[in-house]
C-alpha cells in the first residue's frame, strides 16, 4: 500500500466517511466497543483517505469500522482520524489485511473479499502476498466462491471444517459427500463435534441450498422463512426423539441380556471365581427387578 502516514490527527465528520469494505459485526462485541468509548473515549483514531467532492472533502475508511459505528451509535458528529494518501484499491486491500489480522473475528465477508480482489484483477499470488494467506488456501477459496458454496465457506472460516474437505464436498455427488466425510473421519480431519457439525451442514446444504440467507436487524420476516424455521426445528426434535428411542431400546436389550446371563449358574460361578462381585447400584437394582440372581 503506497500511503504516507499522516502527521496529525484531524476531526472528521462521520457523515462524510464511506465504509468501502463493510463487515458484519458480532452484536455483543460491538456493544463492548460502544461502552468502552462511552466510558473512556477513543483510544486509537480511525484511518481514512481524503477525496475531493463538489461541496467539500469526503473520506474513505481504511480501518476502524467498529470505532466509527460506535461513534455513530453514540450520536457523535466528528471522530478523530489519521488521514493518509491512498487510492481506493489500496484502501480495500488495507481493510482486507486488517480483517485477516483479526482472524478471531471471523466473517464470511473476509472470504468474499478475496473473490472481490480476484475480480479486480489480482492474481492468486498477489492476494496471498497481500493477505498473508497461502496460495493454496486462496485458490481453494476462489474455487468455492465460483461454485457459490457460501455454507461451506462459512464452515471453513469458522474453523469447523478444513478447506480440503470443503472442496471434496463441493465436487462430489450425494454418495461422494458421505465418502468424503468418512475419509475426513479416518484421517482425523473431522472428529467429535466437528464431524456432527459437518453432517448438519451437509444436510442444510441439501435442503436449503448452498447460499447463506442473512437476517438483518429491522428486516421483515416472511411467512416462508418462518415456515422453514419451524420445519427445521420440528425435524431436529424428531431426530432427538428417534435417538432417544434407539438409546432406550439398546438399554432394554442390554438389561434383558444381562438378566438372562445371571440366571445361568455357570455364568455366576465364573463371576464368583473371578471375584467380580461389584456392579453399579443402579444396574443391580434394575437387574433385581427382572428376577435375575446376581453374584
UniProtKB/TrEMBL annotation:
BP GO annotations: chromosome segregation
Protein's name according to its UniProt entry: Chromosome partitioning protein ParB
Ranges in coiled-coil conformation: none
Top-rank taxon, per record: Bacteria
Residue stretches spanning the membrane: none
One Pfam family cited in the UniProt record for this chain: RepB
UniProt GO cellular component terms: chromosome
InterPro entries in the record: Chromosome_partition/occlusion, ParB/Sulfiredoxin_sf, ParB_N, Plasmid_RepB
CDD domains: ParB_N_like (cd16411)
Occurrences of domain ParB-like N-terminal (ranges): 10-100
Amino acid at each position: 500500500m503506497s500511503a504516507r502516514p499522516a502527521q496529525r490527527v484531524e476531526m472528521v465528520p462521520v457523515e462524510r466517511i464511506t465504509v468501502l469494505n463493510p463487515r458484519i459485526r458480532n452484536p455483543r462485541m460491538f456493544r463492548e466497543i460502544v461502552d468502552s468509548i462511552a466510558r473512556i473515549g477513543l483510544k486509537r483514531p480511525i484511518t481514512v483517505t481524503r477525496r475531493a467532492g463538489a461541496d467539500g472533502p469526503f473520506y474513505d475508511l481504511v480501518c476502524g469500522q467498529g470505532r466509527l459505528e460506535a461513534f455513530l451509535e453514540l450520536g457523535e458528529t466528528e471522530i478523530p482520524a489519521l488521514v493518509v494518501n491512498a487510492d481506493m484499491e489500496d484502501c480495500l486491500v488495507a481493510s482486507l489485511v486488517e480483517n485477516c489480522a483479526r482472524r478471531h473475528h471471523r466473517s464470511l465477508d473476509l472470504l468474499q473479499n478475496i473473490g472481490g480482489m480476484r475480480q479486480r484483477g489480482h492474481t492468486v499470488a498477489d492476494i496471498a502476498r497481500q493477505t498473508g494467506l497461502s496460495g493454496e488456501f486462496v485458490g481453494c477459496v476462489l474455487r468455492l466462491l465460483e461454485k457459490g458454496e457460501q455454507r461451506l465457506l462459512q464452515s471453513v472460516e469458522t474453523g469447523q471444517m478444513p478447506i480440503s474437505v470443503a472442496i471434496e464436498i463441493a465436487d462430489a455427488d450425494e454418495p461422494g459427500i458421505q465418502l468424503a466425510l468418512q475419509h475426513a473421519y479416518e484421517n482425523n480431519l473431522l472428529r467429535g463435534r466437528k464431524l456432527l457439525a459437518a453432517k448438519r451442514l451437509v444436510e442444510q446444504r441439501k435442503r436449503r441450498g448452498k447460499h447463506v440467507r442473512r437476517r438483518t436487524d429491522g428486516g421483515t420476516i416472511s411467512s416462508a422463512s418462518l415456515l422453514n424455521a419451524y420445519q427445521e426445528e420440528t425435524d431436529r426434535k424428531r431426530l432427538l426423539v428417534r435417538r432417544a428411542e434407539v438409546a432406550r431400546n439398546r438399554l432394554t436389550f442390554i438389561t434383558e441380556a444381562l438378566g438372562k446371563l445371571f440366571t445361568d449358574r455357570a455364568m455366576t460361578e465364573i463371576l464368583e471365581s473371578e471375584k467380580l462381585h461389584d456392579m453399579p447400584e443402579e444396574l443391580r437394582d434394575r437387574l433385581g427387578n427382572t428376577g435375575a440372581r446376581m453374584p
